Amino acid sequence: MRKDSIRNIAIIAHVDHGKTTLVDGLLKQSGTFQAHQNIEDRVMDSMDLERERGITITAKNTAIFYNDIKINILDTPGHADFGGEVERSLNLVDGALLLVDASEGPLPQTRFVLKKALEKDLPIILVINKIDRTDARISEVIDEVYDLFIDLDASEKQIEFPIIYTNAKQGIAHIELENDSDNLIPLFDTIIENIEGPKVSDSHIPQFLITSLDYDSYVGQIAVGRVNNGILSMNKTYSLCTKEEIKPNQKFSALYTFQGLNKIQTEEVESGDIIAFAGIENISIGDTISDNENPQPLPRIAVDEPTVSMLFYVNDSPFAGQDGKYLTTRHLSERLHKEILRNVSLQVVSTNRTDVFEVRGRGELQMAILIETMRREGYEFMVSKPQVITKEENSKTLEPMEKVLLDIPEEKVGVITEKLSMRKGRMTNLQNHGTGRVNLEFSIPSRGLIGFRSQFMTDTQGAGIMNKLFDGYGPWFGSIPQRNSGAIVSDRNGKVTTYACIGMADRGELFINVGTDVYDGMIVGERNRDGDLNVNITREKKLTNMRASGSDNTVTLRPPKQLSLDQFIEFIAEDELVEVTPTDIRLRKMELDQNKRASQKKKEKYSTQ
Length: 609
Ligand SMILES: Nc1nc2c(ncn2[C@@H]2O[C@H](COP(=O)(O)OP(=O)(O)OP(=O)(O)O)[C@@H](O)[C@H]2O)c(=O)[nH]1
Ligand SMILES: [Mg+2]
What we know:
With 609 residues, the protein is of the alpha+beta class. Strands 18, 19, 20, 21, 22, 28, 30, 32, 33, 34 and 35 form an eleven-stranded mixed sheet that branches. Strands 12-11-17-8-9-16-13-14 form an eight-stranded antiparallel sheet, with no helix packed on it. The chain has a seven-stranded mixed sheet with strand order 2-3-1-4-5-6-7, with helices on both faces. The site of guanosine-5'-triphosphate (GTP) has 21 residues, from helix 1.
């Protein structure tokens, strides 16, 4: 039976097409806030890192009321690295709004999220957003969306989707483009008419799938999900069905429903609604809460496999422990294992060293977010260069492939094509629209893209747009040249001096400021040619030289190159590490001893001859 008093919908799209902004509009126009309340933009992007980076990282739900119907809305991230969030969100809903930018049209992540929604046979409402853009090309974009549906083998029924035109920023929706509606009512009505209420039964055995986890300092761990069947009540006991076992006699300490940005405590929750509970310990995403005597677990949440891995090391550098709160193997292990309880698209694998953990995920951005979150919590650790996860099939090694779509100025085609072909990219399409910009499509092993983004931004002087999409596995491509510059490495402990830095001016670019403490084996800059350079970056000017001519008084020191955490991760080579602490990010050679590094190099040289 369909429950008509509830609608559960997800908003899905490529990054930046306006999902979170549209949720702002829906919240405001459903009377969720008081008139005097001052609501910031993109209010659902509540995490610090989401606000700082201007992107949604985790999917979040909110609930609004429209004509006495409760609409639970899931705002999902559009960046490919967080695709697992979209996959898990689609378990909660009965339909999706597919947002497409009126100018950009469907992009790689549009394809990914639509594919996932069609696999679940969810009805779609196409929302063409940003109709106010001066470069909007609405009818073309709609054609492209139809092509995408056909390409994804959508059924006839799926292709008959309604279309709504919106300006999410102004909170306006039109059924026909030329209408003059000045609010989102047409969108609310389309949702109610086209997306049915949940197919559930209050009298069935209770089944609740834990789809996300939250934490509250008063009540502890909170589970969020949808009551798939039955009623959950404060005064009854239930079974917790985990991956390994069924634990009966569980009781909630609180039950909540959602209303706007708040959770409202309640005695009982009904089937079909998206709710939260507290009080049951040791739960993970994918667990089911069900009947105490006759538990019926739901299938666990399945998401695509990770494609990238990084090693997380306990910090053993000479400066270890100077400013982190959590440093030991146990701290690192517990923190990483806690992460996988709430993040379905990450995996933690042990290695043959007890102080090293392999973390597997969807991409470098997802890894960088985890690393940044941990350092803000007070953790100190080191990470290695991201690697791709290969597969063996018929005794052949396969590696993840990616489709890359580039939108670049015409004059950059040469340099970008050259760079990508060095990384084993193969051009599969080129479209010159005659506007001075060109669209290129490449098929490339994911490995070839590691560390490419910052190079791409430099080469296109920031005027390039790059989107990528995981594209299955292909045969191993052999060696791919990585960074072609060496590192400038400090050969002793000490403080960086102005004099030594000036001496480095024609050797490359430094990453550190004068006065920084360095250690033997720490990377202080990027050399302007191949091969590492060990230097004394702590050198003082000899007193006898002081009197000489004073000529270098006029030398001005170039400011060091400032890299973000993401750029440091992109920069490092396979024998290097990023050392992360709450206050510092340093680079180092894995082997700090330069003599050992030199003999390793020699050995490698002979073994390849
Ligand atoms: N001109 C215009 N800009 C819009 C509109 N809707 C959203 N934007 C802008 O587009 C940018 C991205 O908006 P978001 O709402 O963060 O996009 P998103 O889809 O949630 O992005 P992710 O969650 O990171 O995938 C912001 O700068 C918005 O102000 C619109 O209708 N017109
Ligand atoms: Mg968003």
